[in-house]
Specification:
By secondary structure, the protein is an all-alpha fold. It has helices at about 5-30, 40-55, 55-60, 65-95, 105-125. It starts with a helix and ends with a helix.
């Protein structure tokens, strides 16, 4: 099956932006520059970035095979974002009972929010 030219270009361009954002954040996390030093989190973000990049060529060629990679990247992005959101909420609860200082928000939560329009757009294209 084929998708439209306009839809394939929008999906591919958004996937490129997402892959670059995840790769930049992964490098910053691994090196510990300006954000939390988290090697394993950075490696997970590199994998998500690679999944987005893997589907770009076939998406531009208007194939559903490319969309499956982008969809997989979205699922992983949202899983990691929701996981870090729960960790953030647990930190807020610890702060509320006086056990810890107020937690800082992780960049993965912001990246997951950045991905939600792409998830909605893919839902509209596939439907």
């Amino acid at each position: 099956m084929k998708i439209g030219i306009k839809e394939s270009r929008i999906l591919a361009s958004y996937a490129v932006m997402a892959a670059i954002a995840y790769l930049v954040v992964a490098i910053l996390e691994i090196t510990g520059i300006k954000i939390t030093h988290d090697i394993f989190g950075g490696l997970a973000l590199i994998v998500i970035s690679a999944i987005y990049l893997a589907g770009i060529k076939e998406t531009i060629e208007r194939s559903y095979k490319g969309i499956s990679f982008i969809f997989g990247g979205i699922i992983l992005s949202l899983i990691f974002g929701i996981m870090y959101l729960f960790i953030f909420l647990a930190g807020i609860l610890e702060y509320a009972i006086g056990e810890a200082s107020f937690p800082s928000i992780r960049i993965e939560i912001i990246l997951a929010l950045f991905i939600t329009p792409l998830a909605y757009y893919i839902y509209r294209v596939i439907k």
